[in-house]
Amino acid sequence: MGPVQGSNEAVRSDFVSVVLSTTVSLVEGLRMFPQFEITGVESNGRVDYAIKKAEKIICVVETKQDLPGIGIAQNTRQSQSACDMSKDLIVHKLRETGISNF
Asked: Taxonomically, which superkingdom (predicted)?
């Protein structure tokens, strides 16, 4: 695929997509969602990729060309929002089913 450094966001996104798709295909039960909307208590927004197992978000990915500090900060907030979403899902299922082993 060639070097990704210095390329535009679409090319970087394609590169990351290939890597993530391959990785996700190696683990049973994982699914990848590009341009996934995350809504949390303190922040919300769209991430470049979310990886889910069943209904639980286990990974969020944001592609950045440079400024890794900003990317890390953004990814940290998005990860917290994903955790908030998962907690809401667990509480909802607990109320719905009465089963707490999620």
From this structure: Eukaryota
